[in-house]
Amino acid sequence: MDKEELAGLVKKAVLIAQKEGKLPDFSIPEIPLNYSEKEEYGDYNTPIAFSIAKQINQTPESVAKILADYLAQEEGTKSAEAKGGFVNFYLSDKQLINSLRIILKQKNKYGSSQKGKGKVMVIDYSAPNIAKPFGVGHLRSTIIGQAIYNLYEFLGWKCIGDNHLGDWGTQFGKLITAIKRWNKKPLEELSVSDLQALYVQFHHAAETQAELLEESREWFKKLEQRNKEARQIWKICVDISIKEFNKVYNILGVKIDKALGESFYEGKMEAVIENAKKKGIAQESQGALVIILPGLNVPLMLLKSDGATTYETRDLATIEYRMKKWKPDLIIYEVGADQQLHFEKVFKAAEMLGYKKEVEFKHIAHGLIRWEDRKFSTRKGDTIALEEVLDEAVKRAKDIILKSKENQDISAEQKEQIAKQVGIGAVKYNDLSRQPERDVIFDLDRMVTLEGNSCPYLQYTAVRCQSVLDRAGKIKREIKDIELNFEEKSVVRLLKKFPEIAAEAAETFSPNLICNFAFELGQKYNIFYEKCQILNADSEPEKELRLAITAATRQVLGNSLKLLGIAIPERM
Length: 572
Ligand code: ARG
Known about the structure:
Elements: H1 3-19, E1 34-35, E2 44-46, H2 48-56, H3 60-73, E3 77-83, E4 86-91, H4 93-106, E5 120-124, H5 136-154, E6 158-162, H6 171-182, H7 192-208, H8 211-224, H9 228-252, H10 269-278, E7 282-285, E8 288-291, E9 300-303, H11 311-326, E10 330-336, H12 340-352, E11 360-366, E12 369-370, H13 386-403, H14 412-432, E13 440-441, H15 444-447, H16 455-472, H17 486-495, H18 498-507, H19 512-531, H20 540-564
Parallel strand pairs: 5-6, 5-10, 10-11, 12-13
Antiparallel strand pairs: 1-2, 2-4, 3-4, 7-8, 8-9
Helix pairs in contact: 1-3, 2-3, 4-17, 4-20, 5-18, 6-7, 6-8, 8-9, 10-11, 11-12, 13-14, 16-19, 16-20, 17-19, 17-20, 18-19, 19-20
Bound molecules: arginine.
């Protein structure tokens, strides 16, 4: 029985109470139903008695009592009681065991749904900038963005991931100027850090040489006018950077559907500007072309006074393109909180251009990644190459694996593979396990620990389940309807909650809900594992049941980690 069906049970109780004259006639409101976090409040509870009581002028407690009596008689429930106006009820063991059967039958599909069928979502994530290092902010965007993508897909949405690369804009005028003036290497041999250094040099020099800025504007203008030399230098910078970004994507195991960077919209901005003019919302201001946004004291800049296009114009052109191409119902931007104002402006302007009617916009404004004691910075001097950070995580994971006595028989190659899965998983989980809006602290020691709410803990639990199943061997399993003990029940009732959690995580753009769920499941399973004999259970049906709980836990942990983009090692 899923949540809807459970609500149906409550409704049935109301109807019977009415039919038998225990409650008067009234229109039955929609039945709210909650999973009870604490076992003493039942498996589920409903506050329905409050709204009914109001309608019929009785106390919630008396209504709840009547409903609890009827609900307790339903086949799917074991018992029900009224407490403080709430109706708390427990599912029958048969119901709970049946949910195990469902999980083992649906496997990878368990928890998924078709709620989003026919709907289209575009997610804009990762989006590093050409000629700059792939920063920790982009890492966070990539990891959270991918998890959100996976969640929506799991709920039946058609998803399009788009990497809106920062490959256009006035900064390229600066970069070309710096390359032309100071670079001595053959262009093909430049690295991202060379490009970064040239860019920094430009800024230093421009402080005293004002003509440099003029020169850089010229170069960007040439670039926008398709000057051959400007294009050639630009293209080389793009290729150098993409090559480095791809290394990071490979390590992370992330593949983004599209990479339509800002430069893709080069020829598409004209139409947006025309559209804004036609709608009468574009106006001149000190030589620039802007859209004044009601309620905001900064305008959106369509064209700068020197005629150059802007990041904002490109975002409007991007919306126009996406609307035409994919007709999305929802466009999500997974971009740092420092761009809050930018998106507020873009969404408002999009609304004025007439897009808001057809599509919903959401900016998931992720928080900062910091070291414990200071801000993470990609500015020179404090730069940590992302690859180094990822390598370090893998190295620490390897230390843990090497230490474990259980792993003596694993080949060096396999250890390498496990270390990667654990280390990279830890980095991802660290980002995902907090609400996206919150800051995250980068503490490698804490990330790779096997204790507490960490990725290695979850991976370890999944591996533990698998090893129990492997030891049991492959036999045809039949789960009998027997009585469940406390530990068994606490795992099973939680497993049952997974579909709800997946839906909630997507709706609230919060992959951290999946993390919390998986952690709680891990804890409950491990308590069950400590307290209950599985392979040496007292009876065959008991053993089969416990194996089924183990298999279902392995499955649901697997489904959770898959949504998060985290691999489960074969051994640990
Ligand atoms: N490249 C930008 C940056 O690193 C992020 C782009 C986000 N996406 C967008 N459609 N504006 O700051």
